[in-house]
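Hey all, quick one. A colleague (J.T.) asked me to put the uridine-5'-diphosphate job into the tracker so the inputs and the structure tokens live in one place instead of scattered across chat threads. No bug as far as I know, just bookkeeping. Sequence used:
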Amino acid sequence: MNILLTGGAGYIGSHTAVELINEGHEVIVVDNYSNSSPEIISRIGKVAGRLAAYDADAGDEEKMRQVFLKHKIDAVVHFAGYKAVAESVQQPLKYYENNLSSLIATLKTMKAFGVDTIIFSSSATVYGTSQTAPFDEGMGTGCTNPYGWTKLMCEQVLRDVAKAETGFTAVILRYFNPVGAHESGLLGEDPKGIPNNLMPYIQQVASGKLGKLSIFGNDYDTKDGTGIRDYIHVVDLAKGHVKALQYAQEHRGMEVFNLGTGKGYSVLEVVRAFERANGVEIPYQITARRKGDVAESYADVSKAQVVLGWKAGKTLEDMCRDAWNWQKQNPEGYKNSGRMQRQAKGL
Ligand code: NAD
Ligand code: UDP
């Protein structure tokens, strides 16, 4: 199949591109590189083989139309969007505009070209603060920040389109906490500035770029008082998209799946696992809780297991090892990685 990946140069998109190419699909990336770089397209090429890439905004209907004219698209995986929770609180309009307009322009273009299958990147954040883990897809939703609301709103858009259009398929994937990197060390997470998320922060402490980790609270009602999350290796997550696309070939309407491991680890457990897996020390201090954090978030993964036939296989140790391997090989992320090869075409 010819599969369009909006935001395909991003962290999850790049790993998914590799898995799709490995499965024999043609991959077409549309990315405006607002949070990535064309170098990533070369890296995907090195790991997996050829792909097409366009430097374009998924919210730009004219540019999307040109991509659909050039390629006979069979399905879309929509990763494009902004994802920083704290920034979304400070700049809500930026988030609502980009995350909603990129989905809507993509859906309009799909309709114009008769493309009826979309896989959408949602998040465990939509379970909000009032549910108790494990979270299952039937639970109520609610959000504490604009980023989360954009995900819920996009889910609603897809639900309504699926109701209105017979033959349309939307598979909504609620990711838990993607971490780790491709085992080649060529692809990984490259946050801009000081990382907000735990694993990239630990990686930069390990490399000496940051002095010590602040653990946000040790007074939660959890096994050791620190917050619990469902960390999932990004390659397992990427494989979940391959399964979701297979499912979408045989089903119509909208369906939601959690993609996680179903197992929760505390912040301290992650720190210790990273130290053990990599033989490094992670100095830390305990600080106040971070506003908006829930004590425990982990998935009920039975629906994805039974319906998609997908299960995460990699361990926390694999995640820590691959994250550190990527960090060591790319201390400045994708920057300074040799001459930037601008393979991506403008439109
Ligand atoms: P990322 O920032 O690495 O990737 C997103 C990509 O989309 C980037 O390459 C960025 O340049 C691009 N982009 C943004 N707006 C665009 C637009 N209008 N047009 C074209 N390209 C655009 O993020 P990621 O971690 O790979 O996340 C992918 C998706 O998964 C996002 O929608 C994110 O909200 C969602 N998600 C991520 C996580 C996570 O922890 N990483 C968790 C849950 C959900
Ligand atoms: N966390 C932490 N220090 C950090 C970053 C995160 O203690 O510098 C904690 C955070 O409070 C949460 C867990 O690590 O319990 C995972 O946080 P992350 O931001 O990675 O994911 P999210 O909270 O968005 O699920």
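Adding what we noticed when we looked at it: The longest strand covers residues 117-123. The pocket of uridine-5'-diphosphate (ligand 2) is lined by residues 177, 196-198, 201, 213-216, 227, 229, 267, 290, 293, 297 (CB under 6 Å).
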